[in-house]
Design a protein that fits this description.
Blueprint: H1 8-30, H2 36-54, H3 60-86, H4 92-119
Length: 123
């Protein structure tokens, strides 16, 4: 079997997950924040996990479902980022950087879901 070529959403969600893990480590060890950071660790890494699962989807509907879950997790991650900012656990600059990455992922996932649904005749 030929190896599959990585695509933009796979790369971006993977890099975002890496940043989320590092942010979690920083928040727990330096800021002693354990509640919100655990929430964003779960939702932020779940994006990439669902994208990865989508490549082995059993059907087009399963693919769309996995991508929709990734999109929901990206929305949730943005929520937790805002809470971390509101609690002054991350700076405005740190928030803006993570928000930019998160927004790019949301746009990509939205586009992927809409395109796939259109191709399936659902839109």
């Amino acid at each position: 079997m030929m190896p599959r070529k990585e695509n933009a959403i796979e790369i971006k969600s993977g890099l975002y997950s890496d940043r989320i893990v590092k942010m979690y480590q920083y928040l727990t060890s330096h800021r002693h924040e354990n509640i919100l950071s655990k929430q964003i660790l779960r939702s932020g890494t779940s994006i990439g996990a669902n994208v990865a699962e989508s490549f082995n989807a059993q059907s087009d509907a399963d693919f769309v479902n996995k991508m929709n879950i990734a999109l929901k997790e990206a929305d949730e991650s943005l929520y937790w980022l805002k809470k971390l900012r509101a609690g002054n656990f991350i700076t405005e600059k740190e928030f803006a950087s993570m928000e930019t990455d998160n927004t790019e992922i949301i746009k990509l996932l939205t586009s992927i879901v809409k395109t796939k649904k259109k191709n399936m005749g659902l839109l």
